[in-house]
C-alpha cells in the first residue's frame, strides 16, 4: 500500500481535536500511541456483540470470544515470528511480563550469580531485577553508555562470565531513541549460557522483530505503544523456558486439576495466564497489528526517519539547544534541553499551543543522572505525524525560549 499520510490521519479520530484552541499536535508517542478507528471499532464490536468469558463456556458467545482471542494470539505469533502460538503469553503489559520472568528466576538463582542490565533502562526494567537480587543474593551489573547514548559493547563483553545467568536490555531506549544491537547482545550472552530478555516496549511500533532469527529467550511489549489498547501486552518465551519457569500467579485458567492435596498446572500458555484476562484487549491487540501491517513497517520506518532527520536539524538551529541520544541508530525520539531553561517550563508553554510533548525523566532517572540534568523535553514521533507538525513544534519551542530567557 502506498503511504498516504492524509488518509492515515483520518483513521485517528483524536487527531481532529483541538487543545487550548489549537489543533492537537501529538508528540508523546513514546508514552502511548493514539488508536485508529479500526481498533476502536474492534473494541465496540466485542462489547456490543460477543462479550463473554473465554475457555470455559460451551455457549456460542463464549466460543466466539475464545476463537477471537486465540486467533489474535496466532496473529501476534506470526507477526513476531514466534515458533508456536503457546509461546505468546498475554500479560497486562511490559511491566507485568518483566515481573513474571523476574519472579520465575527466583528459583534458579543463587548467591553470587550475576544479572546484567543496561544503563539506559526504563524503571520497570530496573526495579524487578533489584528485587530479584535482594531475594537471591545475585549481583546486578550495569552496561555503561557513552556520551552519545550508546552502550559500550566492550564493557558488556568484559562483564560476561559463567556466573552470568540473565541479561536484560531494552531494544530501543524510550528516553534517547537509541536502537541497541540486540542480536549481538543475545549472541554474546548465549556463549556463556545466559538467558536474555529484551524489552520491546519502545520498538514494536517502529520495527517488526523476528524472534526466531534473534534467538531471544524472552521478549516483552505493550499493545498501547503500538496503536492497541492499554492493559494488555505479551511476554514471548521460548518453549523450553515456558516449561521450566514456575507459574507466576495461582487462580482460574492456569490449572489442570485442583484438589486440596495437590494442584497440577495447565500447559502453555495457560500456566501463566491465571484469572480472566483482558479478553477485549487481547482481541484489539490483534486488530492493531493488522492495522500496522496494512500501513506497512517499511513505510512507517521511512516516514519516521524523515521526521527524525528534519526535527533534529531544525531543532539544532535553536541556539543553546542540546539533543541527548545522538547515536547513528535511533528511532524518532528527540530528547532535548535549552541551556538555562527547565524542561517543564518548555512543556507547559508548548501545551498552551496544543502540542503534547513529555517532560521529565521519562522513567529513566539513571540516564538523567548520567547527563547531570533534571530531565529533558521529549518529542516522539509516530507515522501519523507530519513535517508541518515538526515546524509547529520548532516554532513553539523558539517562542518558549524567547518567553523564558
Ligand atoms: C513504556 C515502556 C515500558 C513500560 O511499559 P508498560 O506498558 O507501562 O508496562 C517499559 N520499557 C520501555 C522501554 C518503555 O518504553
Automatic annotation (TrEMBL):
InterPro entries with a match to the protein in the record: Aminotrans_V_dom (IPR000192), Aminotrans_V_PyrdxlP_BS (IPR020578), Cys_dSase_SufS (IPR010970), Cysteine_dSase (IPR016454), PyrdxlP-dep_Trfase (IPR015424), PyrdxlP-dep_Trfase_major (IPR015421), PyrdxlP-dep_Trfase_small (IPR015422)
Keywords: Pyridoxal phosphate, Transferase
PROSITE patterns, per the entry: AA_TRANSFER_CLASS_5 (PS00595)
Signal sequence bounds: none
Span of domain Aminotransferase class V: 25-393
UniProt-listed Enzyme Commission number(s): 2.8.1.7
First-tier enzyme category under EC: transferase
Any matching Pfam family: Aminotran_5
Catalytic activity: (sulfur carrier)-H + L-cysteine = (sulfur carrier)-SH + L-alanine
Transmembrane segments: none
Cofactor dependence: pyridoxal 5'-phosphate
Stored NCBIfam families: sufS (TIGR01979)
Function: Catalyzes the removal of elemental sulfur and selenium atoms from L-cysteine, L-cystine, L-selenocysteine, and L-selenocystine to produce L-alanine.
PANTHER family reported in the protein's UniProt record: CYSTEINE DESULFURASE (PTHR43586), CYSTEINE DESULFURASE 1, CHLOROPLASTIC (PTHR43586:SF8)
Family: Belongs to the class-V pyridoxal-phosphate-dependent aminotransferase family. Csd subfamily.
Protein name per the record: Cysteine desulfurase
Organism field: Aequorivita echinoideorum
Lineage of the species this protein comes from: Bacteria, Pseudomonadati, Bacteroidota, Flavobacteriia, Flavobacteriales
Amino acid at each position: 500500500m502506498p503511504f498516504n499520510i492524509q488518509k492515515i490521519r483520518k483513521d485517528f479520530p483524536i487527531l481532529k481535536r483541538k487543545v487550548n484552541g489549537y489543533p492537537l499536535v501529538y508528540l508523546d508517542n513514546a508514552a502511548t500511541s493514539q488508536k485508529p478507528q479500526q481498533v476502536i471499532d474492534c473494541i465496540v464490536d466485542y462489547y456490543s456483540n460477543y462479550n463473554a468469558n473465554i475457555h470455559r463456556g460451551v455457549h456460542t458467545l463464549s466460543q466466539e470470544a475464545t476463537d477471537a482471542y486465540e486467533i489474535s494470539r496466532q496473529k501476534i505469533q506470526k507477526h513476531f515470528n514466534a515458533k508456536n502460538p503457546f509461546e505468546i503469553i498475554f500479560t497486562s503489559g511490559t511491566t507485568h511480563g518483566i515481573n513474571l520472568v523476574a519472579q520465575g528466576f527466583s528459583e534458579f538463582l543463587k548467591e553470587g550469580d550475576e544479572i546484567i542490565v543496561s544503563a539506559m533502562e526504563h524503571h520497570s526494567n530496573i526495579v524487578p531485577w533489584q528485587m530479584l537480587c535482594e531475594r537471591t543474593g545475585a549481583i546486578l551489573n550495569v552496561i555503561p553508555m557513552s556520551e552519545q547514548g550508546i552502550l559500550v559493547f566492550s564493557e558488556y563483553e568484559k562483564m560476561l562470565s559463567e556466573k552470568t545467568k540473565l541479561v536484560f536490555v531494552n531494544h530501543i531506549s524510550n528516553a534517547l531513541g537509541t536502537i541497541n544491537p540486540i542480536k549481538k547482545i543475545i549472541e554474546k550472552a548465549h556463549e556463556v549460557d545466559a538467558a536474555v530478555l529484551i524489552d520491546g516496549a519502545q520498538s514494536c511500533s517502529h520495527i517488526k522483530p523476528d524472534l526466531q532469527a534473534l534467538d531471544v529467550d524472552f521478549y516483552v511489549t505493550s499493545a498501547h505503544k503500538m496503536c492497541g489498547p492499554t492493559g494488555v501486552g505479551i511476554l514471548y518465551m521460548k518453549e523450553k523456558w515456558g516449561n521450566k519457569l514456575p507459574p507466576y500467579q495461582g487462580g482460574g485458567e492456569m490449572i489442570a486439576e485442583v484438589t486440596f492435596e495437590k494442584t497440577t498446572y495447565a500447559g502453555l500458555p495457560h500456566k501463566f495466564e491465571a484469572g480472566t484476562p483482558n479478553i477485549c484487549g487481547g482481541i484489539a491487540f490483534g486488530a492493531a497489528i493488522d492495522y500496522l501491517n496494512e500501513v506497512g513497517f517499511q513505510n512507517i520506518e521511512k516516514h519516521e526517519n524523515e521526521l527524525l532527520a528534519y526535527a533534529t536539524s531544525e531543532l539544532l538551529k535553536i541556539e543553546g539547544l542540546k539533543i541527548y541520544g545522538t547515536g547513528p541508530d535511533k528511532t524518532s525520539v528527540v530528547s532535548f534541553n535549552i541551556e538555562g531553561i527547565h524542561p517543564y517550563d518548555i512543556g507547559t508553554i508548548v501545551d498552551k499551543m496544543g502540542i503534547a510533548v513529555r517532560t521529565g525523566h521519562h522513567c529513566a532517572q539513571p540516564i538523567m543522572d548520567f547527563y547531570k540534568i533534571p530531565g529533558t523535553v521529549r518529542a516522539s514521533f509516530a507515522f501519523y505525524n507530519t513535517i508541518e507538525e515538526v515546524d509547529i513544534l520548532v516554532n513553539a519551542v523558539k517562542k518558549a525560549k524567547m518567553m523564558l530567557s
